[in-house]
């Protein structure tokens, strides 16, 4: 017998409450680290939301997370990165949309994982070339990948960290760039005919609690020492990269 809470397919009251609380926790964590919240949320949502709508629904929630985070930290955004990234994102989404359902994920996961490790532990690699060109290419590549694996903020994170004077610049700029990518992805999904209206109550509740998580996380972020933040970020990105490599190996049948 199918369950419907507030008209949401296969979601009961307990699952609804759990996802809303998880959205709060991952937003709180993501505000402090700038990365990591999205992949955790995606993994938990994948347990209860059908694969056919998982990426669009997760994208809407993450757009709410990123938008509220950008608003709370707008003074610290590195604005010169915005336009090049936007142009690159549009190109990346346009390239990915026609092959959305056909590309295997194992190779993508492996490439992203190795790339994160490289940039996290060799920050100078993330500063190669002119900044505008670098972020245009990053926007294209990240949005292209995000159409398939949804949560790619960990790919963006080390590049933003390499040009950010402090943790507040990093967190605000990462959130703003990701929000642009999410908007472009949603436009692409809409043009492809995806319908997620039934999940509107869930998405609205998750965005609301994520905003609260961002607000509380901001207080912690402002109190962190910069050296502690940088080391924690490097450890987190390494863990996320290793997770991607493990997932790629498992998807490819190597383990």
What does this entry look like structurally?
- The chain has helices at 13-33, 37-45, 51-72, 82-96, 106-121, 131-149, 153-163, 167-191, 200-223, 226-251; strands spanning 4-5, 8-9.
- The chain is an all-alpha fold.
- It has one domain (4-251).
- A two-stranded antiparallel sheet has the order 1-2.
- A hairpin with a 2-residue loop joins strand 1 and strand 2.
- The mean pLDDT is 79.
Structural shape: globular
Helix fraction bin:
over 70%
State the total count of DSSP E strands: 2
Number of helices: 10
Q: How many structural units, i.e. domains?
A: 1
Strand order of the largest sheet: 1-2
Overview in brief:
This protein is mainly α and 255 residues long. It contains ten helices and two strands; from the N terminus they run E-E-H-H-H-H-H-H-H-H-H-H.
Write the layout of secondary structure elements.
Blueprint: E1 4-5, E2 8-9, H1 13-33, H2 37-45, H3 51-72, H4 82-96, H5 106-121, H6 131-149, H7 153-163, H8 167-191, H9 200-223, H10 226-251
Antiparallel strand pairs: 1-2
Helix pairs in contact: 1-2, 1-9, 2-3, 3-8, 3-9, 4-6, 4-8, 5-7, 5-10, 6-7, 6-8, 7-8
């Amino acid at each position: 017998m199918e369950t419907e809470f507030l008209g949401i397919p296969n979601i009961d009251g307990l699952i609804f409450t759990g996802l809303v609380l998880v959205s709060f926790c991952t937003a709180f964590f993501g505000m402090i680290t700038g990365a990591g919240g999205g992949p955790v949320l995606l993994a938990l949502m994948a347990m209860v939301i059908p694969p056919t709508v998982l990426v669009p629904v997760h994208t809407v929630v993450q757009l709410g997370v990123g938008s509220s985070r950008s608003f709370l930290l707008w003074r610290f955004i590195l604005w010169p990165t915005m336009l090049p990234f936007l142009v690159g994102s549009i190109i990346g989404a346009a390239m990915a949309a026609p092959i959305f359902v056909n590309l295997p994920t194992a190779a993508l996961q492996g490439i992203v994982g190795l790339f994160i490790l490289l940039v996290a532990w060799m920050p100078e690699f993330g500063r190669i070339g002119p900044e505008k060109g670098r972020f245009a290419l990053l926007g294209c590549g990240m949005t292209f990948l995000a159409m398939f694996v949804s949560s790619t903020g960990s790919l963006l994170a080390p590049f933003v960290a390499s040009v950010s004077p402090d943790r507040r610049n990093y967190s605000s700029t990462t959130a703003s760039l990701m929000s642009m990518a999410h908007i472009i992805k949603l436009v692409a999904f809409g043009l492809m005919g995806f319908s997620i209206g039934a999940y509107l109550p869930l998405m609205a509740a998750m965005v609301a609690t994520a905003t609260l998580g961002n607000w509380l996380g901001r207080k912690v972020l402002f109190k962190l020492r910069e050296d502690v933040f940088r080391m924690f970020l490097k450890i987190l990105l390494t863990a996320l990269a290793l997770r991607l490599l493990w997932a790629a190996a498992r998807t490819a049948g190597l383990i």
